[in-house]
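Ticket #4471: complex job returned nothing on first submit. Input attached below:
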Amino acid sequence: MATQKSTRPPAPAAERPHPDATRRSQRSRQAIYDAALALVGEVGYPKTTIEGIAARAGVGKQTIYRWWSSKADVLLEAFLDLGEQAAGQEAYAIPDTGDLAADLKAVLRATVDELRDPRFETPSRALAAEGVVNEQLGREFVAKLLEPSLQLYVDRLRAAQEAGQVRPDIDPRIALELFVSPLAQRWLQHTGPFSHAYTDTLVDYALHGLAPR
Amino acid sequence: MATQKSTRPPAPAAERPHPDATRRSQRSRQAIYDAALALVGEVGYPKTTIEGIAARAGVGKQTIYRWWSSKADVLLEAFLDLGEQAAGQEAYAIPDTGDLAADLKAVLRATVDELRDPRFETPSRALAAEGVVNEQLGREFVAKLLEPSLQLYVDRLRAAQEAGQVRPDIDPRIALELFVSPLAQRWLQHTGPFSHAYTDTLVDYALHGLAPR
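Support reply: We reran it on our side without changes. The output follows.
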């Protein structure tokens, strides 16, 4: 999804190292993230190892273990970092212009573009595939990566309920699935092509329903 | 999905063997299907081999190669067979009682039950995970296993359009995703619990829309 909040806490002030060391650490971190994402995309989650990430990033294993306790943790932060880069200067919220359909369409169009970006697609597929058969990992990544972005839709739909644009009896957490899940399934399972026109259609169908009015 | 048509052609009459041989063949086929589904569920698609299936089924490799050209072909037929068993005596259609909501809810409730059946769940997850990262295999299994069952929803929605219960401008192939894809995503990605109440809600939201009427 296009927007994700980082849950990484800032280092406490007392532990902050010298600026040069910070820059070196930052470069190492970025090299480790890049290596982890590239590796998982190439060999899949089961064959991705801390050793392999370290070798590819050109750092020692101990550098990784100083910051993270497992390959799942490294990958989780690498994806959070990737999401922050993709979000760029965008706010961590779905716009509220007062036009719910237009706002949802805009965010879903951006998501379509992001899903097609190979930097995102290859590692995301590898991780999603593992989550399908590894329930614990799947649940952890959903809780930390996917659910925070879904909550942005919940917030936008709640605002629309307050504005009288969504029925008050609707559960926003289920409602968002009417447009988010079809796109997710087409992407994940190759069940059909997706485009801006497709996601626009999903929003129109979800808001206005299939039955005649 | 609950209902799937077999695409396996019957053996031409001239090649039909003696009844005893047919029975033996049928037993071997079933043993091969069972072995293939068990194995893919245990070790995943990449590590499933024709040799492994043959050993587990207690048949020679040549017996498998006589009938199928690849492990993908064996698994495809094994899933078709499993789908036929699950469908039992049910017709290969979604019921049309004249009440679209009730008919869709009934089929989705049956799908919820099927997705929880471990005989179906474990091998299906293994295959779905592979399809996420192996586009060719994913597309083949979607075309041969998933799409035929989705077409049953297309047929039911078309009948509802003719009966004036679905707007004439709706594309049924997209419309069905409003209730099928959320269930698929919750199952595949562990993004949330699912129940009969959940799928009932999806049908109500999809038919009547999120916006006030």
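Confidence is low (pLDDT under 50) at residues 1-10 of chain B. Closing as resolved unless it happens again.
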